[in-house]
Fold each of these.
Amino acid sequence: MIGVTRHIWQDYVEETDHLRHHKDVKPIYAKRKETIERVFADAKEKHGMRWTKLRGLKKLSMQGMLTFAAMNLKKMANWTWQGPEMA
């Protein structure tokens, strides 16, 4: 008998896809493009994450961590610059 081969995590993928369309979760996914996706777009456009001259996972991980650390420091500096009511 020949069966259909499914990925070992396919049940979890289907469950998350089902939850993504739930009425309580839809607004969260709508805000994703304004928050999380924007961070990666800024890293790509403003912080040189589009291309790299580095080779190897270790060097690329280092570049990514340093880039996002710098972005977080800039965000913290802007919060303190605006005053305590915004922090």
Amino acid sequence: MPYLIALDEGTTSARTVLYNERGERLAMESRPIDSVYPHPGWVEQDPMQIWSAQMESARAVLDRTGIPASAAAGIGITNQRETTIVWDRATGKPVSPAIVWQCRRTAETCAKLAASHGAMITAKTGLVVDAYFSGSKIHWILENIPSARERARNGDLLFGNVDTWLIWKLTNGAVHVTDPSNASRTMLFNIETGGWDDDLLSLLDVPRSMLPRVVSSSSFIAHAASEHLGADVPVTGIAGDQQAALFGQACFRPGLSKNTYGTGCFCLLHTGATRPVSRNRMLATRAAQVDGPQFAMEGAVFIAGAAVQWLRDKMGLIAQASESEAIASSVSGNAGVYLVPAFVGLGAPHWDPAARGTITGITAGATSAHIVRATLESIAYQTREILEAMESDSGERLAELRVDGGATANNFLMQFQADILGARIVRPADVETTALGAAYLAGLAAGVWKSTAELESFWRSQRVFEPAMSEQERDRLWEGWNTAVRKCRA
């Protein structure tokens, strides 16, 4: 029986998942990734810890199951997108910490770029100009790390998002590649032509020699060196985490959408071979590519599950994330309390890097339970903002939303999401669809599966949440949220 190994490197952990030929999860192991906040709005990680955590989780899965790496037909890699790593071509040593996607250090640079070249950048990339994306992060490293600019011009430095870094390490530096789904998040990639864009490279002063070769998301890429996992397993799949989740949710056709509830919240609507155009500042991005270019419309919430983590680690209001469901349900409503978790600004549709986290509506009757409830509700409100923008762009009303990610285990959140949307929420049997999508991409290229139609037959729902809130109550709560957002942005 062939197996698939999915390496799922996220913002807070590196996970490895083992799947069989029916797409069933057999085992999963996870190792934490630390983030460092050296200045307000800055977020960094250690590239070497990212690598070691990913390998530790992979070896742990193989040890736990007793299945040798040689039995794997392929490795699929999915990753936190936009997180930027620059390293020395010869030594493999990173020149600086990884700059994480949430980091806002380049916000001022991006504001200037938006004022002078915003329309051109959006036309070529499908993105709004924002510190979220990799291009300005590369520019910052080259400008601020001693001798980095000169070394880059001499061809001595390489850039990669986490997918590129992991593949480079797995192949002992033999392969420097990425796929369209990750490349389209750099602000350097032309999503129409499918290649690195000379105008964008010149604008951000990024040498072409730093950039990885772009390959299909589902294809033979290279063999992992046997010293890492015990066998030279082929790497046959790559996709950014959100595009991988779209694939894992079997959203292969235009009109299908999913929302992933992780550190942030990311809603993608598949648009097929047609590049989407948004009037509401949604992003156009490349979806995972199997047979020719595929596109998706995307809305990004920067802080979702990370807000629950903040309740636990910074505020001490919960001991573990799973407690939030019972605590939120212990009060009958939010008592007028709203929390806008703009810890690193607001993402879509606002794209406001200056916004900061705000709690409004606190009275003497408010309790810690109301703050916990408001935190969970904020995830659902932010998701509604994105979906309303997408509905406006598409002209179609959302009937149901497929959801995935760790926070979907929270039944309070899922029911409130259905209520505030007035739409059905469908939770799949396997909510780890990011890893599943990477395995699907790898398995298709390895010949384990013949077509996406076969994969579609594997998808199963576990629970459906139907809206139960009155329209009057929905409108009242929504008005309160919008008031809180205005105060946050002020």
